[in-house]
Amino acid sequence: MTLNAPDIARCPLHEINAFDPELLQDPYPYFARLRAEAPVYRDPNTGIVSVSTYELINEVNRQPLVFSNDFAAQLQSGSTGGVDAEEAAILAQGWQVTPTMLTADPPAHTRYRKLSAKAFTYKRVELMADYVARVTHDLIDGFVRDGQCEFKSAFANHLPMTVIADSLGAPRQDMDRFHAWSEAFIVQLGGVSDKAARLEAAAKIVEFQHYFVDIIEAKRRQPTDDIISDLVHADLSEEGDPRKMDHGELLSILQQLLVAGNETTAHSLTAGLYYLISHPDQMARVLADPELIPGFIEETLRFLSPTNNMWRIATRDAEIGGVPVKRGEMILVRYGSANRDGGHFPDPDRFDVARENARSHLAFGAGIHTCIGAPLARKEMGIAFPILLERLKTLRFQDGRNSFRYSPNVLLRGVLELHIAFDPA
What we know:
This protein is of the alpha+beta class. The protein has 20 helices and 10 strands. The protein folds into 2 domains: 1-68 and 308-362, Uridine Diphospho-n-acetylenolpyruvylglucosamine Reductase, domain 2 (2-Layer Sandwich); 70-304 and 369-424, CATH 1.10.630.10. The model has no long low-confidence stretch (mean pLDDT 91).
């Protein structure tokens, strides 16, 4: 049943379609109902168990062997219904990827994450500061004289994608292809994609795989100073059995880095400007005191929650908050709801750049599956926003150009476009 916000406030929970694209535009009234009435809610229409409070989501995340991340099959279909024959036939033209980080459990998850974490060490991220600043200035130079732009496509999409592509050792001239492939993976994550969109995404994913297998083989023959070379030559020896990662393992990690290193940061950059322009009092505070920028970034992450929900699967009969959960049931941990939980964040629907506990948000997840790229995302935003606010004066929305609509995606949340105007510094 499709409902508007006033309907959601009074309609029985079982009549609400939690995956309705219109509800996904503003899920927070629904989240509030869940937190108040059923913090652990089994939807009778889908059988999916939602967990919506800050405390209970942390409880789930503290038990990764009970509430598993092994949901790769569900991701492939863009839903919880499995891959159909046509989609499977397209995907068969590529490689079967191996669950590594997002869709793996310990001990495999621990091994792959340890290898991938080398790309995001504190020292490596800190050394990128001047480089990120240069990329930021270069991108702004491309549109600043126009006095206006569509910010997401002109800047937010490009900064994190450029950084991750350069770090991987992939050529910048293929940036448009990287964006297209990233969007294809987002379709798989979406949960509301129709068949035509999934088939198109499957074809793009196979294209991504063939492209990067060629790069993998080139790095195998002649390594360079980049993440792909590091991964290709990483030692996965176990109990005296020396080996390197195969194509399925490498492609799994690369697709996660490509999407995680791009999409969520792009959404957060776009949302940050959106929220500042929408809240002139908060904009004035940040402009008057740049030391508020780190807190503003954390509040943006909390308020948006770019990873709004995430799947888990119960590996055995268990309980969450006293509610029985059966082995094999799909669980949706609702990070976007946890980040608006008034029991942890006072006045949670207010955007406050000076919020004292903003950094305790769950926008990067929690527990062993906390986003591996969180330090890099914070670094990119921490460098980009001061430069943007210095060079783009009197930021405002372009009249009549913005729909302020969000991507219709169950897992990832972000504004589709943001048309802004400004006075060049």
